[in-house]
Specification:
This protein is α+β, with helices and mostly antiparallel strands. It is built from 22 helices and 15 strands. α4 (154-184) packs across α5, α4 packs across α11 (337-369) and α19 (511-564) packs across α21 (651-661).
């Protein structure tokens, strides 16, 4: 019998031919030399694991001049965390990639608590799908910008709307509750001070100068923000009365979420709220809520092709209602349906881009007002204040009548001056083709101020520059405890001008409420069990049948891959891990994965001046990679042109597999080179972490697609 392509017969069956050579005919021993990874614990003790490494700095010389992000990552910082303690030159340090949270160094990056760092990384993983290397000049000095013509997919739309909720909407909620607190007079001393100041400024006709001066003080002097607007847990303040309320989640488990829901790690409650916010939006968000991800779907999927599209249920229901009311019996005769659908989806990309720009702008303002190290702490605030300061002088010198004359004159010019306006725009387009770019806030008053994604990339680059890649955020495999989060009771009571008894009643349910809730829940469960017992048995039957069908399909995949040599079947091997909890750890150097269905490890080597990413059938399991084994392929990281996350299954396949089996699908990644080659790695256990390391190493400049 002839073995399938890429396989040989050994021990009575086909196995992958591990002696296949890469296009350059190089071996792992020729491509990479082995050094050690030092595991660093909180006590700074270390033991050695054989892995590749490089000289201190961890990147090519281009990293020092590529962008301001690269320069900050390679700078010598005054306040240093564990990853910045480069004590052993030439060695990659494991900062606790497979360790529990308690064993990770307390402060990984100087000036930033680990919980905030992991929140940034966790949200970055949801935002970044596809990046492309660029050599274009950067007006703001920072890369990882979203291109103007970025790709559209419902899942990317979902990510942008979630960002909008976590930044803009939560921020506006906090602002609205501050206004409600001031208007309620429940804090009489603070409200009275504002009222008297406002009245005096109104009488003296200096109201606008006062507002602009206050704005300058808030920008330049951060302690003034807590003095004028003392913070309080968001869920604890009523937006209607401005007083204390019981959190909607029933317990104050988080301080910065609208519901106060409990969380195991900082920021998870807001992320859960953002997820549910998107899920509750209309029919377009239905595609996003289902996890549809066109840009990451594999070319073929045995489950996806046999599952109906759930996003068509809404359209089908609407058509059925029209038919029942005597409407058109056949939807294919409706000549408006397809054009309207095409027009709606065509408009989704600019809408998605606008939502992303709004979230980016809000993040930049937040990072300018409260900069995160290693970015400059004073310069952004001074720049913002210098833009507002002239308004103070202008408001002092301009009377209300002159101001109204200027406003109405501007309205008239905008209405009747169209010929002059277009001639002026044509002149600018000829002389300065990119003049709108220079007017954007990211290239003017907020130049050099990062978005959260740019901040996260810089933090990741700090780890790479110091040979200590930042470990992944802790997993939340168990639900958070349903108990109140720790708060400073005296501070909250003084801030909201309330007493401890009222605060306790708002945070904790009374015994009577708990008893009533328990009785209601017991009655509801009894009624539900009585009504839906048969339905649950039917659903359980279909779930078991679907599970068996899924297992059968993936069993056939193995047969097709090993016996028939199907390339598509090979790429689906390993995407449903059997028991990830008992597997040996991956990262930070080697990541368990598959290439064309063959088990192996995607391996990052930084021993040479130019770091490389390779795929090998051997792992650094303590004894190092054997020199006689062959690397399937090896790519210098500075030769990578694009990196794209792809799904292990299509979006419908993931819904079915997740419902029927409850297993996590291991996704993959495509790597494109400048020479036109493409390498698809599948079933990657730490796909996001591998993606982050690849874009943080070396001096590449990236743009987001």
């Amino acid at each position: 019998m002839v073995p399938p392509p890429g396989y040989v017969f050994r021990d009575g069956g086909p196995v992958p031919d591990c002696d296949l050579k890469d296009p350059q005919n190089q071996t792992v021993g020729q491509q990479m030399n082995m050094e050690q990874v030092t595991r660093t614990s909180t006590s700074n003790s270390s033991n050695n694991i054989d892995t590749p490494s490089s000289s201190a700095g961890g990147s090519s010389s281009s990293a020092e001049v590529a962008t301001e992000s690269h320069a900050l990552a390679n700078a010598d910082h005054e306040e240093k965390g564990a990853v910045q303690q480069n004590q052993q030159d030439g060695e990659v340090r494991d900062m606790g990639w497979s360790d529990p949270k308690s064993q990770v160094p307390t402060t990984l990056v100087g000036g930033l608590p680990n919980e905030e760092l992991w929140t940034l990384v966790r949200r970055f993983n949801k935002q970044m799908y596809h990046v492309k290397a660029t050599n274009a000049p950067l007006l703001a000095g920072l890369d990882v910008n979203i291109v103007d013509e970025d790709e559209f997919s419902p899942d990317k739309l979902r990510s942008n709307v979630e960002r909008l909720y976590m930044t803009v909407i939560i921020g506006l909620m906090g602002f609205g509750k501050h206004i409600a607190r001031l208007r309620s007079w429940r804090e009489p001393r603070r409200t009275g001070a504002f009222c008297v100041t406002y009245a005096i400024a109104w009488v003296l006709n200096i109201l606008m100068p006062l507002c602009f001066t206050t704005l300058v003080v808030l920008i330049v002097y951060p302690p003034s923000r807590a003095f004028l607007f003392p913070p309080a847990p968001l869920a604890l303040v009523s937006a209607s009365t401005g007083g204390v309320q019981s959190p909607k989640a029933g317990v104050l488990g988080s301080h910065d979420s609208a519901t106060g829901a409990p969380e195991k790690h900082q920021g998870e409650a807001v992320e859960a709220e953002a997820h549910n916010f998107v899920t509750g939006i209309g029919s377009i968000a239905l595609s996003s809520a289902a996890g549809k991800h066109d840009q990451g779907d594999p070319e073929s999927d045995p489950v996806d092709s046999t599952v109906p599209d759930p996003t068509r249920l809404a359209a089908a229901g609407a058509e059925a209602k029209v038919n029942a009311a005597g409407g058109e019996p056949d939807a294919k005769h409706d000549k408006t349906k397809q054009p309207m659908e095409d027009a709606m989806w065509k408009q989704m990309r600019p809408i998605m881009h606008v939502i992303g720009d709004i979230a980016d702008g809000w993040e930049r303002f937040a990072n300018a007002l409260s900069p995160t190290k290693p970015f400059p702490q004073e310069k952004p605030r001074v720049t913002l204040a210098s833009a507002v300061a002239p308004l103070v002088a202008a408001s002092l010198l301009t009377s209300s009548s002159v101001f109204m004359k200027m406003v109405t004159g501007g309205i008239g010019f905008g209405f009747f001056g169209d010929p002059l306006i277009w001639r002026g725009l044509d002149f600018l387009n000829k002389k300065i083709p990119d003049w709108p770019k220079y007017l954007e806030i990211r290239n003017s008053i907020l130049k050099g101020v990062p978005t959260n994604a740019q901040l996260t990339v810089t933090l990741l680059r700090i780890g790479e520059a110091n040979k200590a890649p930042i470990p992944p955020p802790p997993r939340s495999d168990e639900p958070p405890p349903s108990k109140p989060a720790s708060i400073n009771g005296d501070h909250v009571t003084s801030t909201l001008d309330t007493d401890h008894e009222e605060l306790h009643d708002a945070i904790h349910k009374s015994d009577t409420d708990k008893k009533a809730d328990a009785e209601y829940l017991e009655q509801e469960q009894s009624e539900t069990k009585h009504k839906h017992h048969t339905g649950e048995r039917v659903i359980g039957f279909f779930k078991g049948t679907t599970n068996a069908g899924v297992q059968t399909k993936f069993g056939l995949n193995k047969t097709k891959a090993h016996i028939l040599g199907s390339a598509e079947a090979r790429e689906r091997l390993g995407i449903l891990p059997q028991n990830m909890a008992n597997e040996e750890p991956s990262g930070p150097v080697d990541f368990k994965s598959r290439y064309k269905g063959s088990k192996g490890w995607t391996y990052i080597s930084t021993i040479a001046d130019v770091p490389t990413v390779s795929f090998s059938y051997q792992s650094t399991d303590g004894s190092g990679v054997h020199h006689e084994s062959k690397a399937k392929w090896s790519i210098p990281i500075d030769e990578i042109s694009e990196i794209k996350k792809i799904g292990g299954l299509g979006w419908k396949g993931k819904i079915v597999v997740g419902w029927a089996t409850g297993k996590q699908v291991a996704d993959g990644m495509e790597i494109y080179t400048k020479g036109g080659d493409t390498y698809k790695v599948t079933a990657i256990r730490l796909r996001d972490e591998l993606f982050n390391r690849l874009i943080a190493i070396d001096g590449q400049k990236w743009e987001c697609l």
